[in-house]
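Morning F.,

Quick status update on the modeling queue. The single chain you submitted on Monday has been processed. Sequence for confirmation:
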Amino acid sequence: MQRIPSTMTADELQAWREAYAQSLTMGAHALGVSRRQFAAYLSGEDPVPLTIAILCTAYDLLSARRRRELMELTRPATHGEE
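Structure tokens below.
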């Protein structure tokens, strides 16, 4: 059973982002925070809250197929840019 972290560093959050090839926008969207707030967590400007650490752990536990489905459902509109 995977342990839910009580804290997460900016480096750990960056590693999570890199593991899932998340752009800043997609990473923020997947975690339900603004792009600016996600950047503040990644830079260490703001501490990563426990809720974000829990969401990252939950995301890790999803199957690869489910992660792909979830990202397709939560993909922000591209405003005609593809």
